[in-house]
Amino acid sequence: MSAAELLMWIRGPALQFATVVFVIGVVVRILEILVLGRKQDLAAARGSALAGGLRTIFSRSVPDRGTLQRSTFNVVAGYIFHFGIFLALFFFAPHILFLHDVFGVYWPSLPTQFIDAVTVVTMITLLAVLLHRISHKVMRYLSRSSDYLAWLLTFLPVLTGYLAFHRIGLTPPMLMALHIASVELLMVAFPFTKLMHAFTLVMARYYNGAMAGRKGVNA
Amino acid sequence: MPKDQSIGEALRARGISRRGFLKFCAATASLMALPPSMVPIIAQALERARRPSVIWLSFQECTGCTESLTRSHSPTVEGLIFDTISLDYHHTLQAASGAAAEAARAAAMQENWGNYILVVDGSIPVGDPGYSTIAGISNMDMLLETAAGAAAIVSVGSCAAFGGIPHANPNPTGALSVAAFIREYGNRTPNTFAADAAAQAAHTDISSKPIINVSGCPPIPVVITGVLAHFLTFGKIPDLDSLGRPLAFYGQSIHDRCYRRPFYDKGLFANTFDDEGAKKGWCLYKLGCKGPTTYNACATTKWNDGTSFPIQSGHPCLGCSEPDFWDGGGFYKAISTPTGDISRTAVYAIGAGAAAGVALGALNRAKRTRLQQTHSKVGIDDLDKGG
Ligand code: SF4
Ligand code: SF4
Predict the structure, then answer these.
(1) Are A173 and B360 inside 8 Å of each other by CB?
(2) Which residues lie across from B261 on neighbouring strands?
(3) Inter-chain residue contact B328 with A8, CB threshold 8 Å
(4) Which runs of consecutive H residues, i.e. helices, occur in A37-171?
(5) What is the Cα–Cα distance from B210 to B355, expressed in whole angstroms?
(6) Which domains does chain A have, with CATH numbers?
């Protein structure tokens, strides 16, 4: 199989497969949670669940001071790499083109040099996060193989994307194939790993906020 | 023109000024990314070089490469360098035909055994040798036979270099590039030698012949002549990339040297061929430009005497100097986009996921009710999704 053929397969059947697994997996896991439902709360509401829920989705995104002081590295590094991935994923021109192909919407991109810099920072941060996980006694104790797997699945698309952009090491079609393949791996594993938090995080925050809101607690 | 004339003598005989000749040498040097101090050395080497014999074999090809080459012809000096080699066999350009043409090839091979340059354009059909024959000789046999005495092989054009359009899906003739053919069949003895035991005995394995790929559909004229000039100047094949192409000409991508690159970097794209972006000369990536994955000298050398190149005239790069560029999923589709209809797949998947999710949820509810009724405890492991 030539590099061009491999790339065609990766952009074609492999991508279809990854999409099917990703979408079905994510939908199933979300519905599983929603359909399970909650016991009806018979107590009189003292505040708005909806308002509390919505507020908390955003308010919990800002770390409270205690957490920030206790785990400065986790919070700061966590923010950096999440934001980096977000920017590179949604504001790199070829990615927008890809998403345009799928969703039919188009938005402006950020300068490639900027995305390039963001990618480098993201990779360094991800490496630091891994190092921290390995070197920190408690973190290491808490880590399971699935945590390392999730890290690898996150790191590979960033790394291969960087290599593909700068065309380092292999022919461009090969690098592109590897990059898309790494994303497909991520997509396939996504619903079955903690990566699922990208969706459930919003639900969990809303739920916490709604419970508090209903009780009239300003959480 | 006498064969043993040096290139310098030949040029002077044709009234080419020393200045014009040096200009060509300078252009060649800069194309090959050599320092200006190399210009006199190139000039000296070319002046003294005996006109080498060149045998040009055309297999499954469209003659576009020859067309391209002749566009570098008079009055440019690049073309005259071609006059100064001894082109002993070339279907389109030679006067002789039929048996006389084949006799010319045999004579050139015999006289220059081990020293001639073999240029090939077109791919070699191995599905059935009958798909392409010349004077009753199959392309396979002619290549095996002629390559045996060559100093080096130059595969001109993407068909000879990578298989090109004959090799495109579904490749009905079983077309192979020169390099792929030699890798697979290089140790064979050509059938044409069947009757001639002496020739058979003398036939050398061609598996290790140096091959230079000058890809492009067609290649840029000065790149073809530049590669030959390099060979004449230094007497060895130039530095090649992983696909066997001279780094001097194929070392940088179209995208690296494209004058529309600032627009790409800023995210300014033409969406159609006639929108505002197209008129303003913005980047053609969204229209399928393969510049980022294509290595060629178009953006620097340009075409038609340095007039322009495809992107400059408003059309995306097709990636014609890369292997299998015909099968890249469409000329007007960017290389990073899906080939199929992902949206539709996703919609079906959402439907399937919803059905499965509701069913699973119902099962979970039933399980919960059961556990509640039996007052069973739910531990952390029951909740674990393995994530
Ligand atoms: S037109 Fe093509 S080669 Fe030029 S910058 Fe855009 S993508 Fe790159
Ligand atoms: S711009 Fe691209 S497709 Fe056009 S001739 Fe150059 S390499 Fe070939």
Answers:
(1) no
(2) none
(3) yes
(4) 49-59, 65-70, 72-91, 93-103, 112-135, 137-142, 145-166
(5) 61
(6) 3-37+48-214 (1.20.950.20)
For residue B322, the chain A residues in CB contact (below 8 A) are: 4, 173
Of A11, A32, A195, nearest to B361 by CB-CB distance is A32
For A146-159, the pLDDT digits (tens) are 999 999 999 999 99
For residue A162, give how far its alpha carbon lies from the nearest alpha carbon of chain B (Å): 14
The single residue listed with the structure tokens 């090959």 is: B32
> A108 — contact with chain B (CB < 8 Å)?
yes
CA distance B284 to B268: 9
Q: Using the 8-state DSSP alphabet, how is residue A12 labeled?
A: I
pLDDT at residue B1 is higher than 50: no
A54: number of CA atoms within 13 Å, CB side?
3
Complex ipTM: 0.81
Ligand 2 atom nearest the C-alpha of B298 is 6
Cα separation, A109 vs A118, whole angstroms: 14
Could you read off the pLDDT tens digit of each residue along chain A, which spans 219 residues?
778 889 989 999 999 999 999 999 999 999 988 888 777 888 888 888 888 888 888 888 888 888 888 889 999 999 999 999 999 999 998 999 899 888 989 888 899 999 999 999 999 999 999 999 999 999 899 999 999 999 999 999 999 999 999 989 898 889 999 999 999 999 999 999 999 999 999 898 888 888 888 888 876
Burial B210-221 (b: 16+ CB within 10 A, else e): ebbbbbbbbbbb
The token pair at B332 is 């007007």
pLDDT at position A48 is 85
Structure tokens at B225: 């002549």
- A71 has a chain B CB within 8 A of its CB: no
Contact B293 A176 (CB under 8 A): yes
Q: Contacts of residue A3 in chain B, CB cutoff 8 Å?
A: 323
CA of B250 relative to ligand 2 center, distance in Å: 12
User: pTM for this one?
Assistant: 0.83
The mean per-residue pLDDT over the stretch B218-240 comes to 85
pLDDT digits (tens, 9 = 90+) for B240-293: 999 999 998 999 999 999 999 999 988 889 999 999 999 999 999 999 999 999
To the nearest 5 percent, what fractions of chain B are helix, strand and coil?
50, 10, 40
Distances (CA, A) of B48 to B6, B11, B41, B224: 5, 11, 11, 21
Task: Give the mean pLDDT of B341-369.
Answer: 89
Choice from B298, B300, B315, B335 to test ligand 2 binding pocket (greatest atom count within 8 A of CB): B298
Token pair listed for B95: 């006067």
What is the A23 CA–ligand 2 centroid distance (Å)? 38
Q: How buried is residue A209: exposed, middle or buried, by Cβ count under 10 Å (0-12/13-18/19+)?
A: buried
Contact B231, B254 (CB under 8 A): no
Ligand 1 proximity of B258 Cβ (cutoff 6 Å): yes
Phi-psi region of A216 (alpha: psi -120 to 50; beta: other; left: phi over 0): left
